[in-house]
Design brief:
The complex is a heterodimer of chains A (about 350) and B (about 290).
Chain A (H helix, E strand, L loop, with lengths): L22 H33 L7 H6 L6 H10 L6 H14 L4 E2 L4 E2 H36 L4 H15 L2 H14 L22 H38 L2 H8 L4 H23 L1 H15 L4 H10 L3 H29 L7
Antiparallel strand pairs in A: 1-2
Chain B lengths: L1 H19 L2 H23 L33 H36 L3 H15 L2 H12 L3 H11 L2 H15 L2 H8 L4 H37 L9 H10 L8 H36 L1
Helix pairs in contact in B: 2-3, 2-11, 3-4, 3-6, 3-7, 3-9, 3-11, 4-7, 5-6, 6-9, 7-9, 9-10, 9-11, 10-11
The chains are: A mainly alpha (about 350), B mainly alpha (about 290).
């Protein structure tokens, strides 16, 4: 986790010197840039696969026993399983098999659920996308808006207040914030009853039709608020510092000299330019959102990937752990690469958009 | 030699004068001093027998009373006592894993900044990889695979949190190595080791210090999150207390004395470390720029 003070273009979306030519050269530059980024992403995914393979070979004891855990098996069955898992073959062969299976989308079988891991992950993807998607939209909107206001009146009361809030929120562990919200708004304080459900995405007696959406939305409120509180402070800080950079620029002074009103300088000139690096950084730090989702889903028993991962850790169900780990990592890498390339497409200074 | 000592003493005095001007940093340092003191004094003034489930004397889940100022937990242990002993685990893991993270980050950062060409490219590739991955998820997997224990948790946090330090140190190393006196040293025959340890390291050390303070803060948060998600060291820490409060329904039954104190302790200590780190950065950074 990075401190809010050190948010900087870490994976540097900086334009190289060769990409500043006219439109045709710039387009070729963009293509080369995108290909390079794609190559980097493929390398990263490859590193994830290699790391996963060797990490999960570090498990002490017999993997066949570790993966099946409490399921009682006869020695013959264990032998068969070892052969199925390929444990009797040499390591390079095992590795090749592992990679080929992963490419086909075969992530192994969970003995806890007695089902393929890929199927389990597919089921849990929807709720996670709902939670993370809603949370991101709210957090980005709120963070950018507050960050803009803080930077535009920097040094003022609002600015100091926002900085204080984001510092505090950064010090609060996600899960504890979730517990507090759960205690106050779901369980209720003293005579005040709870107004939100304590767990899950739907109850057994969930209504049908349009009411179902409301039912789920009602369950979504607390997890979403928790997730937003954790990540929005980061966006606020990034937007603030990136707008502060723009305020010092000559073109802002020019805009003011032209006689534009303050709000217009902000809306038409400074904010659009500050938005670009901010939105990129939001996606570059998507890993934080994934971490937030794991803890939030655990606290509220939200039936998503994060909860699946947590249950696998608790088991421990190594097959599910391994599959979820790879899926989460690859998702983060894909988002990062998209952000990198998108920045290059959108930045007018690169001249290809 | 004595001249150098005098100069260092002068720099230290100047540092302290600048740091004192940072009000928030002073508050942070005061909170930290109190927390560390409490953690050190606890074994001298309290009896760890109260942490044993079988020898707990209190009622189960009792609200605060004169005998138990912060109430009791699900097996009748004093929450205050557990918090005091838990502070030792939380702080120790926070310090140790930040130390590990700092060592890895500094070594990788200086090496990647000093050697150009492919070693640097490979190291930065690995650093970026660690920077992008969700570190908590990786730490959880590491802790689950290696099994419980303090050293496992320290390893899991340290190995997954060094990447931003390495990037910072590498950038600073590049800046330091561009200075003429480093070139002079190289011309006079200074080898890689000499340049890295005698010229680069002392110059990046202040930055490392400020960064480590911030790393301790995030390490304590990570430790508590890991403990809450089931990867604890086997000893009571603030995070594992919150795990207990969640498991035993303290949250839904309104047993606030079990949920609030451990969390507030985490927030206070983490905030204190963050304030100190920011104050250190504010004091040290202009000087770093002033030298170059």
């Amino acid at each position: 986790m990075a401190a809010p003070t050190e948010i900087e273009p870490a994976a540097g979306p900086a334009a190289g010197p060769g990409e500043r030519g006219g439109p045709p050269g710039a387009r070729r530059g963009l293509l080369r840039y995108a290909l390079a980024k794609l190559g980097g992403a493929l390398l990263s995914v490859g590193m994830v696969v290699v790391a996963t393979f060797f990490l999960f070979r570090l498990i002490p004891g017999d993997p066949a026993v570790a993966y099946t855990r409490d399921v009682p098996l006869t020695p013959d069955q264990l032998d068969l399983l070892r052969r199925q898992m390929g444990l009797d073959r040499p390591l390079p062969e095992q590795f090749l098999d592992f990679v080929l299976r992963a490419l086909r989308g075969d992530l192994g079988t969970s003995y806890e659920y007695r089902r393929p891991v890929a199927e389990l992950i597919g089921e849990r993807l929807g709720p996670t996308l709902l939670l993370v998607g809603t949370g991101l939209v709210v957090a980005v909107t709120l963070g950018l808006w507050q960050g803009t206001r803080a930077a535009w009146n920097h040094g003022g009361r609002l600015d100091r207040f926002s900085t204080g809030i984001s510092l505090t929120l950064w010090s609060v562990p996600t899960f504890w914030l979730g517990l507090l919200l759960l205690m106050v708004f779901a369980a209720g304080v003293g005579p005040v009853p709870g107004i939100f459900p304590t767990r899950g995405m739907e109850d057994v007696d969930a209504p049908d039709g349009p009411l179902y959406l409301l039912h789920v939305a009602h369950h979504l409120v607390l997890p979403c608020v928790t997730l937003v509180a954790v990540v929005y402070a980061q966006y606020l800080v990034v937007m603030r510092s990136s707008l502060l950079d723009e305020i010092g620029q000559d073109y802002v002074t020019t805009a003011r000299a032209k006689g534009l009103r303050d709000a217009e300088v902000r809306r038409r000139h400074a904010v659009p330019n500050a938005l670009l690096p901010t939105v990129t950084l939001v996606f570059l730090h998507i890993g934080l959102v994934v971490q937030g989702a794991v803890t939030t889903e655990t606290v509220y028993s939200w039936p998503g990937l994060g909860l699946l991962f947590y249950e696998a850790i608790k088991g421990p169900d190594f097959a599910v752990m391994q599959g979820t780990f790879m899926v989460l990592c690859v998702a983060v890498i894909v988002m990062n690469t998209l952000a990198d390339v998108l920045y290059h497409v959108l930045d007018p200074r690169v001249g290809s958009a | 030699m004595s001249e150098a000592t005098a100069r260092r003493r002068g720099a230290l005095a100047r540092f302290w004068r600048d740091y004192r001007a940072q009000r928030a940093g002073l508050y942070g340092a005061a909170i930290l001093a109190a927390a560390v003191l409490a953690a050190l004094v606890t074994p001298l003034v309290t009896d760890p027998a109260g942490l044993d489930v079988t020898r707990a004397t209190g009622e189960k889940m009792a609200p605060p009373s004169p005998e138990f100022p912060l109430g009791t937990d699900e097996s009748g242990r004093s929450i205050l006592l557990t918090i005091l002993w838990g502070s030792r685990v939380s702080l120790l893991i926070g310090f140790l894993s930040a130390l590990l993270s700092m060592v890895i980050g500094t070594v990788v950062g200086i090496t990647a900044g000093h050697f150009r060409g492919w070693p640097s490219a490979v190291l930065m590739r690995i650093t970026d990889w660690f920077l992008v991955l969700p570190s908590l998820v990786l730490a959880l997997v590491l802790a689950a695979i290696l099994g419980g224990g303090t050293s496992t948790i320290v390893l899991a946090i340290g190995v997954t949190s060094w990447a931003s330090t390495a990037r910072l140190i590498r950038a600073q190393t590049l800046a330091v190595e561009a200075r003429p006196y480093v070139e002079r040293s190289r011309v006079l025959g200074g080898g890689h080791w000499h340049v890295m340890t005698r010229h680069v390291l002392p110059n990046v050390a202040p930055l490392v210090l400020a960064n480590t303070t911030l790393t301790v803060a995030s390490a304590i948060v990570t430790e508590s999150t890991l403990a809450f998600l089931g990867a604890d060291s086997g000893q009571a820490s603030w995070g594992s207390m919150l795990r207990g409060s969640y498991d035993w329904g303290a949250v839904t039954s309104g047993a606030w004395w079990y949920v609030l104190p451990p969390g507030l302790c985490i927030v206070a200590v983490v905030l204190a470390f963050t304030l100190c780190g920011r104050a250190l950065e504010a004091v040290l950074n202009p000087r770093l720029r002033g030298v170059s």
